[in-house]
Amino acid sequence: MRLVVDLNRCQGYAQCAFLAPDVFAMHGEESLLYNPQAAAEQRQNVERAVAACPVGAILLELTDEDMAHLPAPDAVAGSGARPGGTR
Amino acid sequence: MTGVGTHDGALERLKRDGRIVVVGASLAGLRAAETMREKGFAGSLTMIGDEPYEPYDRPPLSKQVLLGHAVADRTALPRRRAIDADWHLGVPATGLDMAARRVRLGNGDEVEYDRLLIATGVRARPWPNEEEGALEGVFVLRTRDDAEGLQRALAAGPRRVLVIGAGFTGSEIASACRERGLDVTVAERGAAPLVGALGGVIGEVAAEMHREHGVDLRTGVMVTGLEGGPAGRVRAAHLSDGSTVEADVVVVSLGAQRNTEWLAGSGLGAGPRGIACDAGCRAFDIRGIVTDDIYVAGDVARSPHALFGYQFLSLEHWGNAVAQADTAAHNMLSESSDRRPHLWVPAFWSSQFGVNIKSVGVPPMGTEILFTQGSRAERRFAAVYGYQGRVIAAVTFDQCRWLQFYEQQIETTAPFPPPFSTVDRRPEGNKPVPADFPDPSVPTHGPTITLSGYSPADRKMTFTPARH
Ligand SMILES: Cc1cc2nc3c(=O)[nH]c(=O)nc-3n(C[C@H](O)[C@H](O)[C@H](O)COP(=O)(O)OP(=O)(O)OC[C@H]3O[C@@H](n4cnc5c(N)ncnc54)[C@H](O)[C@@H]3O)c2cc1C
Ligand code: SF4
Fold first, then answer.
1. Is the peptide bond prior to B55 cis by the omega test (within 30 degrees of 0)?
2. CA–CA distance, B248 with B224 (Å, rounded to integer)
3. Which residues, numbered 330 to 369 in chain B, qualify as contacts with chain A under a Cβ-Cβ cut-off of 8 Å?
4. In CA terms, which of B173, B310, B313, B367 is 20 to 30 Å from B455?
5. Residue A10's closest chain B neighbor by CA?
6. Model-level ipTM above the cut of 0.95
7. Interface residue of A30, A42, A47, A66 to substitute, partner B, most B CBs within 10 Å
8. pTM for the full model?
9. Are B423 and B373 in contact (CB under 8 A)?
């Protein structure tokens, strides 16, 4: 899967780092570092992080490889970001 | 297909079976293409990019990638939707014929358009001495390949890294080196890191950060030459103060140059300062007349902004590329009365030495600065920039929650110094001080916002008409 975080919008709330710690990590008090191409096994965690981000800053694209991996019926797929990716 | 204009039914025709060409297949180009499809564009879409890769994200290249948390060739941008485009990757656009509405490609092909979007961005300014710049161990950082090479060189455990230029990218590289336990020297021509972007008051805070993290920071100096060893590897650098720094990795971080050379002689208002466009992203031609079929977005654009006195702004900001691409794409497919101005308030983030630095507005316009929240000593603060009695920008160090508030202040042209008294008790008091930006005519390393005057077609540029 591919992801990008709009770090202008990100408020450093760290929900994503809590829900998918192998993909998102806080660096210092409010800097977020993330892996832009996380492994398929992380799908469920990342989808939870996308849904939990209070400012909708995480844009996620699932690839075929992710689709082949375990289904996550309860998770919200796709993007938490509004079109345009601005505020 | 010519004749697709803005007359009755023409817009519908353009949307149904027009031809849109995007030159520059990176962040702005991709996001614009997605917006076009979202708006129902069903015609042919051609993406031309000189890098051989599909669009990828650059900010991680100086952060996660150098820290080893991500891999340079795995930063491809997620797609908002499928764009069903005809991709020409690894092929540069080499010319534009505005009259025939045609883009020439490096492989000899030509592509015709009804609407053209130019999003060719910028590239790293190379080391001025070509021979020295070609030494092994000398890097710039702009592309995926650059990052891969630099990350490999850092992993090999160099004895010392020299970073030339302490703008945002240079500072982030120095920070990553320290985190990897590498010795690093930073040489900056200005008085402090980040002075061009944030001024001397904040630059001083940045300098403290470098030094506390063990960076050998040298300011007010220039690197005058690089010296190679017998195997063609860089060995040392000579500085203007007469000193020598021995380093086996050198990163040249001297800001960016706009990718506009391919437009030379085309008649478009394009030059070293970028491509001038109106608030609706339509490019100006060399006569200062706005075109109706050529649009620009992202780092290559310079556009007038109503909130900042209609100054032409060149913004090397991720968020600007996304927002301007969206506006350009919307306007390309709209009647003139439905077009939107690009009114995005500039915003930027950087992550260095474990501190989250963010800004909104245009700090280099600020003449004064006031610390408003938090503490400068603890490096957790918000500071506001004032210009002619109004709030023009704000910067935060690990205090990003304040930014939205200041963004509103900027948008509503709130007074400076701010009348509210929410400030914590701080020893430095409650008085604005000069923001201390260097003389704008002296270029600094990577200001990331460039104020480039009012004139759309820079009169200093020479233009040789093709048919005279
Ligand atoms: C290391 C690094 C770190 C960054 N960190 C941050 C950050 O923390 N925060 C932030 O806000 N911004 C950051 N940025 C800036 C951000 O990445 C840019 O603002 C953004 O990439 C601009 O997108 P763009 O599409 O306008 O231009 P670019 O990304 O520069 O893309 C332009 C594309 O066009 C191609 N091209 C050029 N000429 C031609 C031609 N003639 N024909 C075909 N193709 C051509 C180029 O090769 C390139 O692929 C960073 C940039 C770098 C390099
Ligand atoms: S949950 Fe959202 S706002 Fe919080 S750190 Fe993650 S991306 Fe940022």
1. no
2. 17
3. 344, 347-349, 351, 353-356, 358
4. B367
5. B400
6. no
7. A30
8. 0.92
9. yes
